[in-house]
Amino acid sequence: MPHKNKKETLIRQWQMLKLLGRQWLKASEIASMLKDQGHEVSVRTVQRDLQELSTIFPIQLNDKNPRDYGWRWMKGAPIDIPGMDMSEALAMRLVEIHLKQMMPSSMLEALQGVFSQAKSRLEQVPKPSDWVKKVKVVQPNQALLPPRIDETVQVGIYKALLEKRKIKGYYRVIRMEESKEYVLNPLGLILRGSVSYLVATAWDYEDPRLYAMHRFEKADVLDEECSIPEGFDLEKAISSGFADFANSGDQVHLQLLCDESNAAYLEETPLSEDQKISSPDDGWVKISATVNNTWQLRWWLLSQGAGIEVLAPIDLRKEIAEELAEASGHYATEKNPEVLKAVATVAQRAIDISANLVPRDPARIPVILDAIREKWEKNPDLRLAQLLVNVVSPSEPSPLVYYFEDEQLLSKLVNL
Question: 271: pLDDT confidence band, cut at 50, 70 and 90?
Fold first, then answer.
């Protein structure tokens, strides 16, 4: 056989081995894949090649279908195509450890060969190594145990994402006892700490929401292709604060007073690219940065306690002050004089902050009402509550508000 033909055969067979996975793959399917990669061969040639390769590599023939044989790598067999060096083997072992926390075992079967190869490669080290024990991933906040996700739900959602198909799911909104039926258009998946979120739009709505995977009781993949909002980009959505539960998707110019400890930390890990730090003054440092307006921002500010004071925006300053005052009230029953003094100091500070805030301008009311009237008259079939939910686009579904009838709202207002 000419040297060129031998080379082409070797490349083709090498490619065939790379195409094989843990699921049965017909010879006709392999021939079609090879054709897409520039290798014109018959199904019979593929079958002959695989028969020859099976004498060298741990690949398996499914001869139950005489019309078209199926092939795959044997379960648990290390896939040595191509070879794996020590650093790659270590990386794959770490991937295996952490993927087990996020993906169902049925979806990891396709990677068992790679994982087995990595384990086998690490065992070849002359001196036993405990590298895997020396590398750990920890959360930067309070560690929480991951919620339990129904494996059939997880597999169904992953399948719908890959195939771009709709889901009919039964989902329970937080703080609600019963689940409700939703028809969702899957757009992406966000792994946020110990919780996984499906990014999706519901029914024919255009605004994407986050749905916690563990709150799904059932998820059936539909034949209907999912509808993707025009211009939607998951990466852009995340950069605008979507994954941190954005209030409005807007950015705010944050101004803080920080003690030296927090200032030093923020100097090393800035809040934003445009962060500015002033010179220390009496142990306090002024920091300004443009950040996304999110709930995560509020949780972080509250977690810093007395080490940070919000100067602006004014609304956020008031919100944090009121939250701290309410939190301090939970400890007001303590009999310890030092605790009571600390509670009184926090409460008084919050009162002082609120007293110095600029009140909202009443002139804004007719302007807002005119804007609501204009939008509502263009969409008279919408309930007022429905219109407001569409405008605000909360990160979690709000069925109690969304389906609130106008007559109920009017009655509530009259009796307020």
Answer: very high
Residue 354 lies in a domain: no
If asked whether residues 167 and 235 sit together in one domain, one would say yes
Taking the model in full, what pTM does it have?
Answer: 0.58
For the cut 80, the answer to whether the pLDDT of residue 63 exceeds it is no
Considering its fold, how many domains does the chain have in total? Answer: 5
Strand-strand pairing, 246-259 and 308-312: antiparallel
CA gap 6, 32 in Å, rounded: 21
DSSP assignments along 34-62, one per residue: HHHTT----HHHHHHHHHHHTTTS-EEEE
The answer to whether residue 324 sits within a structural domain is no
Is the N-terminal amide bond of 313 cis, ω within 30° of 0?
Answer: yes
Highest mean pLDDT among 11-15, 184-188, 315-319, 383-387 belongs to 184-188
Structure tokens at 26: 């017909």
The pLDDT confidence band at residue 305, using thresholds 50, 70 and 90, is: confident
Q: Phi first, then psi: what are they for 240, rounded to 5°? A: -90, 5
Give me Rg for the CA atoms of the chain: 30
Asked if residues 276 and 288 have their Cβ atoms less than 8 Å apart, the reply is yes
- Cα dihedral 59, 64, 66, 68, rounded to 10, equals -50
Question: Where in the sequence is the domain holding 372, given as residue range(s)?
Answer: 364-414
259, HSE (Cβ side, Cα atoms, 13 Å): 6
Q: What is the mean pLDDT of residues 134-158?
A: 80
Nearest to 69 by CA among 49, 94, 88, 55: 49
For residue 115 the two structure tokens come to: 């994982």
Q: 134 near 356, Cβ under 8 Å?
A: no
